[in-house]
Write a structure and sequence with these properties.
Elements (H helix, E strand, L loop, with lengths): L1 E2 L12 E7 L8 H14 L6 E6 L11 H13 L4 E4 L5 H11 L2 E3 L1 H12 L3 H16 L5 H8 L12 H36 L4 E6 L5 H9 L16 E6 L11 E6 L9 H6 L1 H8 L3 E7 L5 H14 L6 E6 L6 H11 L6 E3 L9 H8 L8
Parallel strand pairs: 2-3, 2-4, 4-5, 6-8, 6-9, 9-10, 10-11
Antiparallel strand pairs: 1-3, 7-8
Length: 381
Amino acid sequence: MATRESQSTKIDQPITMVVCVYAPYNTSGLFEAYKEEFLSLVRTAGIEYECEMSCKIRSTIRAVFLTKGKLEDVIELASEHKVERIIFSERLTPLQERNIEELTQAIVVDREQLILEIFKKSAHTSEGKVQIAMAEIEFLKTRMSGKGIEYMQQSGLRGGKGPGETMKEKTRRYFAHQIHIAQRHLDILQNTREMQRKKRLSTKIPLIAVIGYTNAGKSSLLNTMTKSAVLAEDKLFATLDTTTRELYLGENKTIGSNQKVLMSDTVGFISQLPPQLIKSFRSTLDEIRYAHLLLHVIDLANPLWGHHIRVVKKTLQDLKISVPMIYVFNKIDLVAPARLDMFRMTILDEYQPYVCINTKDKNGVKELRDLLENHSFTRED
């Protein structure tokens, strides 16, 4: 348990406490690295916090998630600092969220809400904004007795169809209407995307999709390979909207001499990605399905790189996406030479084909470019 020294807090932000929990289902293997990822999410959301607490639990409790002793620690620390908002590293059920709020007298934000907030701030295109809005509504539907009703009231809905209609019924009807409006807008945008996709496919130009865990360096790779200037920041979910650029290769056995391929950057994955977001971004993620090749970018300098690979592969499996893939181990300039040599000797059997790169300049990606120039860009379908 740790308390931060007094720091400037924005007037419009409630006094906030963050709670990082290493739950029994967590397969990352390194608690400190997992905690740092959680705190990075908090920082990316632009949230300042007064105090923090970390704990490991061997089991979860249906009503309040935390075991009795850990919950008492949270209540005590929240009371001591007069906390108004508590952010948890894990996903909570509506029941758990509501009970903890009653016990602490503070607003509770779980991992799902935190990631939704980050996505809201990071979406720039019309399609991205609609997708986020739909995901948020789907989430609030599960909280109809609390945040859902508050959201509806803030939106200006008053009254109901008849005297017997309950607030929950009004809320359910309101959300159904909002989903219908958003879905119609999204259908129009997706039809445009589908037309663009068909036009691209008709050109027979191979497509490379760059995928990976958030902040692995996907946008930086796209910039270095294609000499572009796509936003690339050292933070989680800097990129939400798909960006496609042309990449010119040298002699390639399937596309000829100095021929071009298309290279697309995609939204990053993360462990416990809210299901509403996966559902809402399905059309965007479908771009991966039509690719000839996936470049799976991995931040080798991150101690959780193995866990990140498992998360990405599991997400692809859930989406039923099966496309040839190259493992691209990135940021090797941040890895000690001896560790990198050991890594090269131990990964050969498990990750094939693979390359080790850094995206500082074109020399850092030469190994990848050479591999692409010898790749067979064909699709069975």
